Amino acid sequence: MTDALTRMLASRDWLMADGATGTNLFNMGLSSGEPPEIWNVEKPQNIRKLYGDAVAAGSDLFLTNTFGGNAARLKLHNAQGRVRELNRVGAEIGREIADKAGRTVIVAGSMGPTGEIFEPMGTLTHELAVEIFHEQAEALKEGGVDVLWVETISSPEEYRAAADAALRADMPWCGTMSFDTAGRTMMGVTSAALAEMVERLINPPIAFGANCGVGASDLLRTVLGFAATGTERPIIAKGNAGIPKYHDGHIHYDGTPELMAEYAVMARDAGVRIIGGCCGTMPEHLRAMRVALESRPRGNRPTLEAIQAKLGPFSSASDGTGDDAGAGRRERRGRRG
Description:
This protein is of the alpha/beta class. Helices cover 45% and strands 13% of the residues.
Protein backbone atom coordinates (compact mmCIF):
# COMPACT_ATOMS: atom_id res chain seq x y z
CA MET A 1 0.00 0.00 0.00
CA THR A 2 1.40 3.38 -1.03
CA ASP A 3 2.11 5.77 1.83
CA ALA A 4 0.16 9.01 2.22
CA LEU A 5 3.01 11.36 1.29
CA THR A 6 3.84 9.48 -1.91
CA ARG A 7 0.17 9.54 -2.89
CA MET A 8 -0.01 13.30 -2.31
CA LEU A 9 3.19 13.93 -4.27
CA ALA A 10 1.76 11.92 -7.16
CA SER A 11 -1.26 14.20 -7.39
CA ARG A 12 0.32 17.62 -6.72
CA ASP A 13 3.08 19.71 -8.31
CA TRP A 14 4.15 21.06 -4.91
CA LEU A 15 3.29 20.70 -1.24
CA MET A 16 3.69 23.32 1.44
CA ALA A 17 5.30 22.21 4.69
CA ASP A 18 5.24 24.07 7.99
CA GLY A 19 7.50 26.67 9.58
CA ALA A 20 9.52 26.92 12.77
CA THR A 21 8.92 24.81 15.85
CA GLY A 22 11.37 26.42 18.26
CA THR A 23 10.64 30.04 17.31
CA ASN A 24 6.90 29.56 17.73
CA LEU A 25 7.29 27.78 21.06
CA PHE A 26 9.69 30.42 22.39
CA ASN A 27 7.00 32.98 21.58
CA MET A 28 4.62 30.90 23.73
CA GLY A 29 7.02 31.04 26.67
CA LEU A 30 9.41 28.14 26.23
CA SER A 31 12.61 28.91 28.13
CA SER A 32 16.06 28.70 26.61
CA GLY A 33 17.55 25.32 27.47
CA GLU A 34 14.15 23.76 28.21
CA PRO A 35 13.51 20.67 26.04
CA PRO A 36 10.50 21.48 23.82
CA GLU A 37 9.46 17.80 23.76
CA ILE A 38 8.44 17.99 27.43
CA TRP A 39 5.64 20.33 26.40
CA ASN A 40 3.99 17.46 24.50
CA VAL A 41 3.00 16.13 27.94
CA GLU A 42 3.05 19.23 30.14
CA LYS A 43 1.51 21.81 27.78
CA PRO A 44 -0.32 19.89 25.06
CA GLN A 45 -2.59 22.86 24.35
CA ASN A 46 0.45 24.81 23.13
CA ILE A 47 1.46 21.96 20.83
CA ARG A 48 -2.07 21.78 19.45
CA LYS A 49 -1.81 25.49 18.69
CA LEU A 50 1.59 25.01 17.02
CA TYR A 51 0.27 22.31 14.71
CA GLY A 52 -3.12 23.95 14.21
CA ASP A 53 -1.62 27.31 13.23
CA ALA A 54 0.43 25.61 10.50
CA VAL A 55 -2.62 23.82 9.12
CA ALA A 56 -4.71 27.00 9.24
CA ALA A 57 -1.96 28.86 7.35
CA GLY A 58 -2.16 26.31 4.52
CA SER A 59 0.47 23.70 5.31
CA ASP A 60 -0.08 20.33 3.64
CA LEU A 61 2.48 18.77 5.96
CA PHE A 62 3.69 19.61 9.44
CA LEU A 63 6.46 18.27 11.67
CA THR A 64 5.91 16.94 15.17
CA ASN A 65 7.50 18.59 18.20
CA THR A 66 10.03 15.77 18.57
CA PHE A 67 13.21 17.15 16.97
CA GLY A 68 15.34 16.47 20.06
CA GLY A 69 13.36 13.44 21.13
CA ASN A 70 16.09 10.82 20.82
CA ALA A 71 17.77 9.26 23.86
CA ALA A 72 21.14 10.95 23.23
CA ARG A 73 19.57 14.43 23.26
CA LEU A 74 17.08 13.76 26.06
CA LYS A 75 19.91 12.41 28.22
CA LEU A 76 21.08 16.02 28.58
CA HIS A 77 17.87 16.61 30.56
CA ASN A 78 17.88 13.25 32.38
CA ALA A 79 14.87 12.28 30.25
CA GLN A 80 16.40 9.48 28.18
CA GLY A 81 13.87 7.07 29.66
CA ARG A 82 10.96 9.10 28.22
CA VAL A 83 11.68 8.65 24.50
CA ARG A 84 8.61 6.52 23.83
CA GLU A 85 6.25 8.71 25.88
CA LEU A 86 7.33 12.10 24.51
CA ASN A 87 7.44 11.03 20.87
CA ARG A 88 4.23 9.03 20.98
CA VAL A 89 2.28 11.89 22.58
CA GLY A 90 3.78 14.46 20.19
CA ALA A 91 2.66 12.27 17.29
CA GLU A 92 -0.79 11.60 18.75
CA ILE A 93 -1.49 15.33 19.06
CA GLY A 94 -0.39 15.76 15.46
CA ARG A 95 -2.68 12.96 14.31
CA GLU A 96 -5.57 14.60 16.17
CA ILE A 97 -5.01 17.97 14.47
CA ALA A 98 -4.51 16.48 11.00
CA ASP A 99 -7.57 14.25 11.19
CA LYS A 100 -9.88 17.17 11.94
CA ALA A 101 -8.40 19.47 9.27
CA GLY A 102 -11.10 18.69 6.71
CA ARG A 103 -8.47 17.86 4.07
CA THR A 104 -5.49 15.56 3.79
CA VAL A 105 -2.62 16.78 5.96
CA ILE A 106 0.57 14.77 6.42
CA VAL A 107 1.96 14.28 9.94
CA ALA A 108 5.75 14.03 9.73
CA GLY A 109 7.65 12.68 12.73
CA SER A 110 10.61 15.02 13.28
CA MET A 111 13.92 13.32 14.10
CA GLY A 112 16.92 15.57 14.64
CA PRO A 113 20.59 14.65 15.06
CA THR A 114 21.92 12.76 18.06
CA GLY A 115 24.50 15.44 18.83
CA GLU A 116 27.16 12.72 19.04
CA ILE A 117 30.29 12.32 16.89
CA PHE A 118 30.90 9.08 15.01
CA GLU A 119 33.98 6.91 15.30
CA PRO A 120 36.90 7.34 14.94
CA MET A 121 36.73 11.01 15.97
CA GLY A 122 34.03 10.26 18.52
CA THR A 123 32.45 7.26 20.20
CA LEU A 124 29.18 6.82 18.28
CA THR A 125 28.98 3.61 16.25
CA HIS A 126 26.63 2.91 13.35
CA GLU A 127 24.86 0.22 15.36
CA LEU A 128 24.24 2.51 18.33
CA ALA A 129 23.04 5.36 16.10
CA VAL A 130 20.57 3.03 14.38
CA GLU A 131 19.34 1.86 17.79
CA ILE A 132 18.86 5.47 18.98
CA PHE A 133 16.93 6.48 15.85
CA HIS A 134 14.95 3.24 15.78
CA GLU A 135 13.66 3.75 19.32
CA GLN A 136 12.37 7.18 18.36
CA ALA A 137 10.96 5.97 15.04
CA GLU A 138 8.92 3.22 16.71
CA ALA A 139 7.44 5.72 19.16
CA LEU A 140 6.47 8.11 16.36
CA LYS A 141 4.97 5.21 14.42
CA GLU A 142 2.96 4.20 17.48
CA GLY A 143 1.65 7.75 17.76
CA GLY A 144 0.37 7.70 14.18
CA VAL A 145 2.76 9.74 12.02
CA ASP A 146 2.52 9.24 8.25
CA VAL A 147 6.23 9.58 7.60
CA LEU A 148 9.49 9.98 9.50
CA TRP A 149 11.22 13.32 8.87
CA VAL A 150 14.95 13.28 9.56
CA GLU A 151 16.31 16.84 9.56
CA THR A 152 19.29 19.12 10.23
CA ILE A 153 21.77 16.27 9.72
CA SER A 154 25.38 17.14 8.94
CA SER A 155 27.22 13.81 8.60
CA PRO A 156 26.69 11.08 6.00
CA GLU A 157 27.14 8.45 8.72
CA GLU A 158 24.18 9.80 10.68
CA TYR A 159 22.04 10.07 7.55
CA ARG A 160 22.75 6.42 6.71
CA ALA A 161 21.96 5.35 10.29
CA ALA A 162 18.59 7.13 10.11
CA ALA A 163 17.84 5.39 6.82
CA ASP A 164 18.55 2.00 8.39
CA ALA A 165 16.41 2.87 11.42
CA ALA A 166 13.47 3.79 9.19
CA LEU A 167 13.83 0.48 7.37
CA ARG A 168 13.89 -1.39 10.67
CA ALA A 169 10.73 0.45 11.75
CA ASP A 170 9.12 -0.27 8.35
CA MET A 171 8.31 3.42 7.90
CA PRO A 172 8.63 5.76 4.90
CA TRP A 173 11.00 8.64 5.54
CA CYS A 174 12.36 11.93 4.25
CA GLY A 175 15.75 13.38 5.10
CA THR A 176 17.31 16.83 4.96
CA MET A 177 20.76 18.12 5.79
CA SER A 178 21.77 21.61 6.94
CA PHE A 179 24.24 23.32 4.61
CA ASP A 180 25.61 26.13 6.71
CA THR A 181 29.38 26.23 6.11
CA ALA A 182 30.19 27.81 2.74
CA GLY A 183 27.67 25.60 0.95
CA ARG A 184 28.58 22.47 2.89
CA THR A 185 27.30 20.80 6.01
CA MET A 186 29.36 21.09 9.18
CA MET A 187 30.92 17.73 8.28
CA GLY A 188 31.75 18.79 4.71
CA VAL A 189 28.91 17.28 2.68
CA THR A 190 28.00 19.17 -0.52
CA SER A 191 24.64 19.30 -2.26
CA ALA A 192 25.98 17.06 -5.03
CA ALA A 193 27.32 14.55 -2.50
CA LEU A 194 23.95 14.27 -0.74
CA ALA A 195 22.09 13.81 -4.04
CA GLU A 196 24.50 11.03 -4.94
CA MET A 197 24.40 9.40 -1.52
CA VAL A 198 20.61 9.04 -1.31
CA GLU A 199 20.57 6.97 -4.48
CA ARG A 200 23.11 4.53 -3.04
CA LEU A 201 21.15 3.86 0.16
CA ILE A 202 19.49 0.49 0.63
CA ASN A 203 16.47 2.41 1.92
CA PRO A 204 16.42 5.78 0.11
CA PRO A 205 14.09 8.55 1.31
CA ILE A 206 10.86 9.51 -0.44
CA ALA A 207 12.28 13.02 -0.71
CA PHE A 208 15.51 14.71 0.32
CA GLY A 209 16.83 18.22 0.59
CA ALA A 210 18.01 21.04 2.82
CA ASN A 211 16.71 22.78 5.91
CA CYS A 212 17.85 25.52 8.25
CA GLY A 213 21.38 26.69 7.33
CA VAL A 214 22.18 30.36 6.87
CA GLY A 215 19.31 31.99 5.02
CA ALA A 216 16.89 31.65 2.12
CA SER A 217 19.45 32.70 -0.51
CA ASP A 218 22.03 30.10 0.50
CA LEU A 219 19.41 27.39 0.79
CA LEU A 220 18.14 28.02 -2.74
CA ARG A 221 21.70 27.89 -4.07
CA THR A 222 21.96 24.45 -2.44
CA VAL A 223 18.66 23.44 -4.05
CA LEU A 224 20.05 24.40 -7.45
CA GLY A 225 22.98 22.13 -6.64
CA PHE A 226 20.58 19.22 -6.10
CA ALA A 227 18.74 19.96 -9.34
CA ALA A 228 22.00 20.19 -11.30
CA THR A 229 22.67 16.51 -10.58
CA GLY A 230 19.60 15.56 -12.60
CA THR A 231 17.94 13.84 -9.65
CA GLU A 232 14.35 12.75 -10.17
CA ARG A 233 13.72 12.28 -6.45
CA PRO A 234 11.47 14.96 -4.92
CA ILE A 235 13.45 17.82 -3.36
CA ILE A 236 12.67 19.49 -0.03
CA ALA A 237 13.47 23.11 0.87
CA LYS A 238 12.91 24.44 4.39
CA GLY A 239 14.77 27.71 4.65
CA ASN A 240 15.11 30.09 7.56
CA ALA A 241 13.11 33.31 7.52
CA GLY A 242 16.05 35.57 6.83
CA ILE A 243 19.06 36.02 9.09
CA PRO A 244 18.95 35.97 12.93
CA LYS A 245 19.56 39.33 14.61
CA TYR A 246 19.87 40.00 18.34
CA HIS A 247 17.30 42.63 19.30
CA ASP A 248 15.94 43.71 22.70
CA GLY A 249 17.26 40.63 24.46
CA HIS A 250 16.05 38.00 22.00
CA ILE A 251 16.86 36.53 18.60
CA HIS A 252 14.74 37.91 15.76
CA TYR A 253 14.77 36.67 12.17
CA ASP A 254 14.64 39.53 9.69
CA GLY A 255 12.81 37.73 6.88
CA THR A 256 9.44 39.31 6.10
CA PRO A 257 6.38 37.42 4.83
CA GLU A 258 7.03 39.08 1.46
CA LEU A 259 10.59 37.73 1.35
CA MET A 260 9.43 34.22 2.25
CA ALA A 261 6.76 34.41 -0.45
CA GLU A 262 9.50 35.18 -2.98
CA TYR A 263 11.59 32.34 -1.60
CA ALA A 264 8.67 29.89 -1.89
CA VAL A 265 7.97 30.78 -5.52
CA MET A 266 11.64 30.61 -6.46
CA ALA A 267 11.96 27.24 -4.72
CA ARG A 268 9.00 25.92 -6.71
CA ASP A 269 10.47 27.28 -9.94
CA ALA A 270 13.79 25.61 -9.06
CA GLY A 271 12.01 22.27 -9.02
CA VAL A 272 11.36 21.84 -5.29
CA ARG A 273 8.34 19.66 -4.51
CA ILE A 274 8.04 20.22 -0.73
CA ILE A 275 8.44 23.85 0.33
CA GLY A 276 8.45 25.10 3.90
CA GLY A 277 10.27 27.30 6.36
CA CYS A 278 12.62 26.66 9.26
CA CYS A 279 13.85 28.97 12.04
CA GLY A 280 11.93 32.23 12.30
CA THR A 281 9.10 31.11 10.00
CA MET A 282 5.78 32.05 11.59
CA PRO A 283 2.16 31.51 10.49
CA GLU A 284 2.12 34.92 8.78
CA HIS A 285 5.07 33.82 6.64
CA LEU A 286 3.30 30.58 5.75
CA ARG A 287 0.12 32.38 4.73
CA ALA A 288 2.07 34.66 2.39
CA MET A 289 3.92 31.65 0.96
CA ARG A 290 0.69 29.79 0.28
CA VAL A 291 -0.95 32.75 -1.45
CA ALA A 292 2.11 33.29 -3.65
CA LEU A 293 2.41 29.61 -4.58
CA GLU A 294 -1.24 29.44 -5.56
CA SER A 295 -1.52 32.78 -7.37
CA ARG A 296 1.78 33.24 -9.18
CA PRO A 297 2.43 31.32 -12.39
CA ARG A 298 5.38 28.97 -12.66
CA GLY A 299 8.49 30.63 -14.05
CA ASN A 300 11.91 29.62 -15.27
CA ARG A 301 14.47 28.10 -12.92
CA PRO A 302 15.97 31.09 -11.04
CA THR A 303 19.56 32.12 -11.62
CA LEU A 304 22.00 32.84 -8.81
CA GLU A 305 21.80 36.53 -9.78
CA ALA A 306 18.00 36.51 -9.48
CA ILE A 307 18.16 34.81 -6.08
CA GLN A 308 20.57 37.42 -4.75
CA ALA A 309 18.53 40.28 -6.18
CA LYS A 310 15.30 39.14 -4.51
CA LEU A 311 16.46 37.37 -1.35
CA GLY A 312 19.78 39.00 -0.52
CA PRO A 313 23.47 38.10 -0.90
CA PHE A 314 24.97 34.68 -0.30
CA SER A 315 27.02 34.22 2.86
CA SER A 316 29.96 32.74 0.95
CA ALA A 317 31.47 32.96 -2.52
CA SER A 318 31.05 29.25 -3.17
CA ASP A 319 28.53 26.49 -2.62
CA GLY A 320 31.35 23.98 -2.27
CA THR A 321 30.78 22.31 -5.63
CA GLY A 322 31.99 22.83 -9.19
CA ASP A 323 34.92 24.89 -10.37
CA ASP A 324 34.84 27.18 -7.34
CA ALA A 325 34.93 24.35 -4.79
CA GLY A 326 38.47 25.20 -3.78
CA ALA A 327 37.44 28.73 -2.86
CA GLY A 328 34.62 27.29 -0.78
CA ARG A 329 36.99 25.02 1.10
CA ARG A 330 39.37 27.87 1.82
CA GLU A 331 36.58 30.01 3.18
CA ARG A 332 35.22 27.11 5.21
CA ARG A 333 38.58 26.66 6.95
CA GLY A 334 38.68 30.39 7.65
CA ARG A 335 35.24 30.39 9.21
CA ARG A 336 36.24 27.57 11.52
CA GLY A 337 39.34 29.47 12.61
